[in-house]
Amino acid sequence: MDNHLFSGLKVIDAATVIAAPAAAMMLGDFGADVIKVEQPDGDMLRLLSHLPGTPNAGNHWFWQMDGRNKRSIVLDLKTEGGMEVLRRLVAECDVFITNQPHSVRESLKTRYEDLKPLNPSMIYASLTAYGEEGPERARKGFDQLAYWARSGLMDLMREPGTMPTQGLPGMGDHPTGVAIYAGIVTALLHRERTGEGGMVHTSLLANGLWSVAGIAGGVMAGGDMQAYREASNRTGGMGRVYQASDGRWLQFNMVRNDHLRDLMFTAMEATHILADERFATPQLMWQNREAFGEEIAAIIATRTSDEWLAAFAA
Q1: Which of 52, 91, 248, 282 could form a disulfide with 305 if both were Cys (CB 3.0 to 4.6 A apart)?
Q2: Alpha-helical segments (H) within 93-135
Q3: Taking a C-beta distance cutoff of 8 angstroms, is the pair 19, 32 a contact?
Q4: What is the pLDDT of residue 2?
Q5: Element (H, E) at 189
Q6: What is residue 49's predicted lDDT score, i.e. its pLDDT?
Q7: Pick from 59, 42, 41, 37: which is nearest to 50 by CA?
Q8: Quick one: which of 201, 210, 207, 209 has its CA closest to 98?
Q9: Which of 101, 91, 165, 89 is nearest to 129 (CA)?
Q10: Domains of the chain, with CATH numbers?
Q11: For residue 98, what is the enclosing H or E element?
């Protein structure tokens, strides 16, 4: 892989499970030499393919997906021998990635300030559940908690009146891994221009809040969250899904002007809905959005999803 973007880049992946190791995996995809440091009983990622709640394919597909393009070494970092090997690896690396809890880093002396003297030009990438500062900096958490639940996504993504919905395995980890990767690449560009190493960091909570920023940003800017919740209890005609006669679901999205709306209802052979005085203007459509949605639902239920897709593509 000598002709890849990151050929010759040395990366130490001293992280576990998905989010931070996924950033190392992406660097490996572009040619970096990634050394995966595992504890004596192996990384938890090796087990995820066989846990309830994931498809059982009879192989280690989760490890193959997120652990690819790496060489592995087993080190017991609780021993001086293991730490000595890690320090030698750090002294020669370009990037060091960790998601160890702060308490572990402090006890092992693997914080940025501990390792920087060994290699001032390296990029130290840190992932935490809840951030580098604040009262919860030492709190542990996986993406189901820090990304999905604590960000508000778990609450906001459910249908009105229903229980909160649990996220999928790795659903917050993988986008967070992209954020770590972006931070590392930005720091590498800075090093190329200045010769300076440095530390980059992100958290699962920060990435969950970024995912929900389309609502959370408005609330932080002074928006009325209670009014938003009350309005969300009544789904708009373009903000819901519709079941076709074959049991599959369709969603209409970005029907953002009168022309597109007219095309949609023409394809549905439902221009009579537009003549209904309850829906004569966009304002009335919104005021009567539940009735508007029910009219659409009744029509979509008359054909299969394939028939509708063909009609909308015509």
Answers
A1: 248
A2: 102-108, 112-115
A3: no
A4: 66
A5: helix 173-194
A6: 86
A7: 59
A8: 201
A9: 101
A10: 10-211 (3.40.50.10540), 241-313 (no CATH)
A11: strand 95-98
Q: Which residue, 15, 42, 179, is CA-closest to 97?
A: 15
Give one DSSP letter per residue of 237-300, joined into a string. Answer: TTSSEEE-TTS-EEE-----SHHHHHHHHHHTT-HHHHHSGGGSSHHHHHHTHHHHHHHHHHHH
Which of the residues in the chain have pLDDT under 70?
A: 1-2
Structure tokens of 106? 């402090």
The DSSP element (H or E) to which 153 belongs, if any, is: helix 153-156
Q: CA-CA distance, 155 to 174, in Å (whole number)?
A: 21
Q: Which tokens belong to 271?
A: 């221009």
Report, as residue numbers or ranges, the catalytic residues: 173
Pairing relationship of beta strands 10-13 and 33-38 according to DSSP bridges: parallel
* Tokens (6 digits) for 158: 């459910």
Q: What is the model's pTM?
A: 0.88
The residue written with tokens 């969300």 in the block is 232
DSSP assignment string, 72-83: EEE--TTSHHHH
Q: Please answer whether residues 221 and 228 qualify as being in contact, where contact means their C-beta atoms are separated by less than 8 angstroms.
A: no
pLDDT value of position 93: 98
Q: State which H helix or E strand residue 194 sits in.
A: helix 173-194
